[in-house]
Amino acid sequence: MTSSHGRGPLHLAAAVDQPGAYDAGPYVELTRLAERGGLDFVTLDDTFARPGPDAPAVLSRVAPATQRVGLVPTLTTTHTEPFHIQATVATLDWVSRGRAGWRIDVSTTEGEARLFGRRHSAPLDALWQEAGEVADVAAKLWDSWEDGAEIRHVPTGRFLDRDKLHHVDFTGAAFSVRGPSLAPRPPQGHPVRVVDATEGHARSTAARHADVALVRVVSPAQARTVRDRLRADAAGAGRDPNSLLVLVSLLIDLGDGEHAAEPGHGGGGPRQTAQGPLYRGGPVDLADLIASWYKDGAADGFHLVPVEPRRDLERLVNGTVALLQHRGLFRTFYPGSTLREHLGLTRPANQYAGGAV
User: Fold this and answer.
1) What torsion, rounded to 10 degrees, do the Cα atoms 155, 160, 162, 168 define?
2) What is the pTM of this model?
3) What 8-state DSSP symbol labels residue 104?
4) The pairing of beta strand 212-215 with beta strand 245-253
5) Is residue 276 over pLDDT 60?
């Protein structure tokens, strides 16, 4: 689908974080709501720095209760074994039939390091370099089973075609992995990788490895500047720059009725807060903002983080999204069944197929 403005389609995603909720029910409810609005994906944050449920486990429970919407948990690459990370994401992709993503993050504090007791905290540049290496080895492990490696031929007892299984033999700055993976190649080939590229340390990892980059900015000009830089860096890394989607990430507070209660706050755009850029207003103003920034070429879409999860997501879907659909700016149905298809991303070729080792 191509929009009437000559650009790729508008992409919308939302966070379903709910502090204090440990039962799966509230997450299922919010994700179904996001799916009803046709959103590309939902994110669920996870960190060692505060209490909360395990995001991949929660979304594995959400998966069979939904059909189309993408499911993107945060997994930190710090203090976590790369082999386990890739297996967790691959499993979610299998459970969801090709709807998994992985929001790559790092753990920066000494308190988080003490939970594991293996090493101290490290500088941000070193942590993000390691994150890039984990993203790289995850792709290799996902490819360590070629498509069709499973035979499952009962009469001969052959389960695998060993010629289609590959060792990885990867050595990074902080870890080494041999492989192959324990899980067959995920349905998407590579589940979608998401990186918050707002801070400079994360941008190189996003440019090299992300399918979707999130940027927390308060103006279209800022968004366009970061997007152009990310795509230039992606091209410099040998990638097709159009294969990197850039979404503006905003906190949203839709408690002020149809329009902004404070003149200039909703209609005037987001304001910087200690928690990040915040849009406060109503669903109509938010639809106007999204439409304006999108038509202006500032971003490929938006990742929206509700301040009040249930209230704001309902108003987002029933108000903002419905209005964007009515204006012909956002789709009314899913174009495919996988998250890559929603985002217009191709399924990557296997790097080991054809005899490469």
Assistant:
1) -170
2) 0.90
3) E
4) parallel
5) yes
